[in-house]
Predict the 3D structure of the following.
Amino acid sequence: MSAASPTPTSLRVALLGGGTVGTEVVRLLTADSSDFSARVGVPIQLSAVAVRDLSKPRPGIPSSLLTDDALAVATSGADIVVEVMGGIEPARSLILAAMAAGSSVVTANKALLAEDGASLYEAARKFGVDLYFEAAVAGAIPLIRPLRESLAGDQVSKVMGIVNGTTNFMLTRMDEDGADYAEVFDEANALGYLESDPTLDVGGHDAAAKAAIIAELAFHTRVTIDDVYCEGITQVTSTDIKAAQDMGFVIKLLAVAERTDAGVIVRVHPAMVPRDHPLASVRLSFNAVFIEAESAGQMMFYGRGAGGAPTASAVLGDLVAAARNRLSGGQGPGESTYLDLPVLGIGEAQTRYYVNLDVADKPGVLASIASAFAENGVSIQVVRQDGHGDEAGLIVRTHKASDQSLRQTIDALSKLDTVRRVLGVMRVEGEPGA
Amino acid sequence: MSAASPTPTSLRVALLGGGTVGTEVVRLLTADSSDFSARVGVPIQLSAVAVRDLSKPRPGIPSSLLTDDALAVATSGADIVVEVMGGIEPARSLILAAMAAGSSVVTANKALLAEDGASLYEAARKFGVDLYFEAAVAGAIPLIRPLRESLAGDQVSKVMGIVNGTTNFMLTRMDEDGADYAEVFDEANALGYLESDPTLDVGGHDAAAKAAIIAELAFHTRVTIDDVYCEGITQVTSTDIKAAQDMGFVIKLLAVAERTDAGVIVRVHPAMVPRDHPLASVRLSFNAVFIEAESAGQMMFYGRGAGGAPTASAVLGDLVAAARNRLSGGQGPGESTYLDLPVLGIGEAQTRYYVNLDVADKPGVLASIASAFAENGVSIQVVRQDGHGDEAGLIVRTHKASDQSLRQTIDALSKLDTVRRVLGVMRVEGEPGA
């Protein structure tokens, strides 16, 4: 089969956004232009770079390419429009306008995809153009392409990701150096790791946007950020870190997307992971995504999840794919929501839990606590009793239980006179040894 | 752009090979046929399965599909021909015949790709069909697609892979359980892990074929298995394992493809890897590939590298990609050898080394040994002296040195009367902490 239109002799690329990622994209496209020509088949020409503030110096971007008329750039009929400005608006309108003008779109915009990916897919379908977004999740780590293409012949059952480098850096420092939350927050801030609104990182919202994108691709079901249960790391204490260590676990902020018999559950929360699980060794600002699929089994992808250069690498890989499609007359994968599974709330999630209790050192303590678990249908896997006298602590790890059963258990425990305080409650993920 | 031909309303797939992988492909295509239809856009019909021996029972493959006329299946004009029979011939002739008949090809044939990938690419180009081969390297782990597509906008500098599960299983058992080579060979044999010709595994030839395929994609330069230096694990001793442990290293059979200023070097050999390197934690029969790229930085892909189900998962992902191209009129990536870098011999490789010496316990030993290294231009990084009297051992870890310099050093050491025996020599890979 051959394309009806004549094969273009060069391709035009227009860029929306001239920040860190945009500048790196320009640099690489310019520095390695003969490589790109060879890899695509024809020369790639950068036609324009739209920025908000023309007066700001943009070292590395030729001034002749700069303009503040983003709509004109978006609708210039470029073969490919690259959107690296971020945010919902005007990014959405510009992408839709670019597609209407016949341009394929490469975007790194996780917030927009997680909120309204459906509009972008719909426009791509309507206008017969490509929508690529590898850079939106886990930076340079190829994850979107494997989910959309490599695993297109498999059934994914669960995805667990460390997809926010800032919080992983903070948790690593707490784990390895005994720093407390306030200290590592300040450190991350000083290093420039935190978003201008830090709650996007520490509140888990950045991870939640990525979780929604991952879940939609993994389960062929529309998922938006509103479907994602989101709990950040602000409540993680040194006590939790220490308890995790004592049990052979490490605390990670996980983005989890899983398929159960009843539907799809997508959640972001801190979790205890066994030290011998592949995700446990993902340190500092690295990202990793662990996938379980029916035929492929367990897989993990690991690498740099953020930063100008890694993000630009992902953008340029997409750009080459979109360019090759232009030349061959083909089209990349579109939206796949055919399974249309129910998206369930966190109440339906079944996970294991860790519960850390400050207890009175008197006879019958364990019996009363065990009853509280049993009466609420939560089965205990391991109990560990530390110290004695005024220092008595009891750590319980449960078998799988529902969110609701666990909450009821915690309520019941709080009312026991043998329990002085509930010191910590956290989900446990990853089978030991897996 | 739209395809000139009318969009097909269904796609025909023909299979060459009815072994473990072929049977699993049939099972999945049949069991999940509505999923495939939804993901591709039209129904996929399995038209025939060619096998060598029709009299052999093939549970799971409908007998109406079976035939021993492989050429008829290859040239039946199916939209996609899947080749999972393996070996050079008749696989090559059948694939070329299928392409000439207008079929896209999905193959898991690492031996053929490593020996004569060029012929397959050439035919794919000539007849305007796709050639996909994700299953040929690292089974279910998406690696080929990331190299061909995701990293198409980046410059890969080095790839290091654990790509043979059998030898990784053997080395893991030697490391963790103190078993010696003969024991773990027997164990791997009893578990059915070894190829019918075990030298393919333990001699490193299976890994070498995969290394050639990886290197060609990573460096846009034609590489065949004849270009790959290949050393297996048969010489790895318990002494090496123990020495590695004492230094905080673990021994892995690595497939290394690297780009130097002078060209490309591709090699397979056992190497000591620091325990905190991501590859060190890849245990038992798991595979992993570690990639360093200019913009993306360090990445690792981890998962099941072999087995019927994981291999079938990779085949089916390719099948969906080829099918989508059929429908959209597009074409997947072709051969990319535009860089055409010189492919260098092992003599040009610069690596660090471990050298384990049984030495006489007399004054001046270290001085004479240090001189032998220095005179041959090999710089010492660490020396570690163990025991004394008749048990004296000396372990040296070098800075980067050429293969030739190291060989000359070992020659010189062997001639020293202070050196009783060279107990072990092995390359060291992976920067500590990386």
In short: The first strand of chain A starts at residue 11 and ends at 16. Chain A touches chain B through 66 residues (CB under 8 Å).
